[in-house]
Amino acid sequence: MFPDLAILLAIAVVWLAAGVVAEGLPRLRSARPLRRRGGLLFVLVLSGLAGLAGVLLTGAVEAEPTLADQTAVGLALPAVPAVVVAVLTVRRLRELRVRAGAFAAAPETPAPPALRAAAAHPMIALPVQVTGLVMLPGLVTAAGLAPLTGPSMIGMVLTAAVLAIGTIGVRHALRHSRLVERAVTIRSRSSRAAGILHV
After folding, report:
1. Who's near 147: CB < 8 A, 6+ residues apart?
2. Are 22 and 124 in contact (CB under 8 A)?
3. Which of 74, 81, 168, 174 has the most CB atoms in a 10 Å sphere around its CB?
4. DSSP secondary-structure letter at 63?
5. How far is residue 49 from each of residues 84, 90, 132, measured CA to CA in Å?
6. How many Cα neighbours within 13 Å face the side chain of 93?
7. Rounded Cα–Cα distance for residues 180 and 85 (Å)
8. Which residue ranges does UniProt annotate as crossing the membrane (predicted)?
């Protein structure tokens, strides 16, 4: 049981670390650190996906039959946001690194507002952070502290997950909207300035 719990703990730590890195992406004001941090997040996300897929597909978590069943229920929760990460977040991270690389030739090149808005897109941070959070019930179940097979426990976990997803999603959406608005404002100002120069 202990090796299996250590595997789950390692996977959860990778996802939680990825969530922390994703949280800080839009705060970076230079293109080179944004590209470097985006690459780190890309590696963490791929590692988390590989670890979670390995546990789910090979049945690496093997304990008593009842405990294995409970753990499978716990791991079904992060599988859903992990699929979103694999389908949407990985592609956005690749695009973000390419765009940041175009501005990262000089060490202190400022990240354009549109690039920071792309880094703040909810589909980058939200699925990663949700996957990390919903890994925790699987850990609790694998440790035998609180089985999740009972209807009441499953209901409580799902309710907490929905509340967490809603809160995190609204927060990321507001930040993304704020950065997009700033990017549009700067673009319109530069367009007006260019029009004046051409007159």
Report:
1. 66, 67, 70, 141, 153
2. yes
3. 74
4. S
5. 11, 10, 11
6. 27
7. 22
8. 6-26, 38-60, 72-90, 124-146, 152-174
Beta bridge pairs of residue 110: 30
* Total tally of structural domains belonging to the chain: 1
E strand spans, the chain:
none
- DSSP states of 72-87: HHHHHHHHHHHHHIII
* DSSP secondary structure, 75-143, as one string: HHHHHHHHHHIIIIIHHHHHHHHHHHHHH-SSTTPBPPHHHHHHHT-HHHHHHHHHHHHHHHHHHHHHT
Tokens 């949407």 belong to 88
Give the predicted TM-score (pTM) of the model. 0.80
> Please, is 147 exposed, middle or buried when counting C-beta atoms within 10 Å of its C-beta (0-12, 13-18, 19+)?
middle
Closest C-alpha among 171, 184, 74 to residue 131: 74
Eight-class DSSP state of 120: T
Domain of residue 45, residue span? 2-198
